[in-house]
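Hello again,

I reread your note about wanting to compare the complex against the isolated chains. To keep things tidy I'm splitting this into two emails, and this first one only covers the full assembly. Below are the input lines as submitted, including protein chains and any nucleic acid or small-molecule components. They are followed by the predicted structure of everything together. The single-chain runs will come separately.
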Amino acid sequence: MRLHNAISTVLFLALAPSISSGQDVHWQRKDQPTEPSVTIFHSPQSANLPTATVIGAGQWQFEISHRFLPPFSDGAGALWGLDGPIYNRLGLSYAPTDRLMVHVVRSNLDDNLELGGKVRVLEGGGETTVPFQVALAGGFAWNTAIEATGGYENNESQAYAQLVVNTLVGRRLAIGVVPSLLHNPTIADRDAPTELTVGLNGELYLGRYLSLLGEWNVSPPRGELVHDAVSLGLQIETGGHFFKLVATNSARPNPTQFLGGTPYAFKPKEWRFGFNVTRLLAF
Amino acid sequence: MGVRAILSMGAVVWALASVAGPRPAVAQEYDVAKDADRHVRFVSTTQVNTFDGVTDRIDGYVFLTDSPLRAGMPTDGSKLYFEVDLASLDTGIDLRNRHMRDDYLEVGQYPYAKFSGVLARVEDADDGGLRVTASGTLRIHGVDRGVRLPCEVRPDGDGYGARCAFDVLLSDFDISIPKLMFLKLANRIRLEVAFSAVPAEEARGGER
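Full-complex prediction:
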């Protein structure tokens, strides 16, 4: 018996390497699948109002936007407004992190040059609860070439601050509320107090690339800017572009200009064409 | 028979088994090392542009019934499994990532690309490493396709470092090719995979 045990021990020792690891696979997944962050507005900007969306860290965004001054109602003789003239806006944004983006934008209306930024400060919800995002935005603007005279001297700078709250309803409808404080809303009036405006914007996603957008910024009437700015339009998105085509009663492109209001009522007779084209760049 | 005699006999048998007789098969599982460099890259090349997407989220294992890996080794019973977390693919532009995730790969429904198969052949490579061919099934977007994957493998510590490159056709996996993307995607996509695999005990935290 002892001999039998001894032989068993020897055989076990001899064969141990071949069975020590067994024949079963013990691998188990080490990580859970990545959960992409919820997207509410696809674009960092509606027609004019900001959204809480921030472009990816390290990315750049170039923008060119036009607002045509003549309304559609000028008819075929003015090519429904497309003959111009236009107000043009050029912008460049950069996101140092996934939450922060900074920008410089310039419009040829008073050669308004703005430095600004946006930071997403809060987000929540997801697949099972209503998602939301909150951002703070703001900027300083200088009107560097004011053609009109009287009241404008030494009153070229403006500033604004915004709270941006976004949510998504039913996975297809993004809604935003954007209260804004606008300092020096009317550069013709150096005594004009800082004013509060409230923007509402929404976007209805129709498919992979197409959505309807709308925005309305409620602002107190002041000077010639007696009406709220309203824009309705269409957004087309591709792998790196957003194309926004809008009908609007505002031709004032930059935030300190748009937020103050517009001289035109939002009536079909005063609707004019505008577009924004943005391109994301990664170097 | 004393204990000393038994141990001596055991040593002799061990030596004979190791030197004179056929080498005993040693089964070993190797897992993808989480702490080592790993990456999966896809490259789309058209006449107009080239762009790529990368992720380091590859995981899986290689199970050899007769370790170590060597040229001409028997491959019967070997098992390979790899999976790539598709939602983590980064093309450098968030918007493009989202389109890719949501519209083409549909990662909510098909979160992983998976390969499961066996070793088909192991040969010596000119550079001193090994040329390993794996055959099996690649599952992307819920569609299975038979594939053969050529890889270059080198010993690396107790495990191996592997680099594989092969092409897939998006149409084979029922992935529609974006038509409205300004950066047009090619139907033929180059996939490059690199990872290290270490003994499973080591991968699980050194519980040898």
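For quick reference: Chain A has one domain: 38-282.

B.
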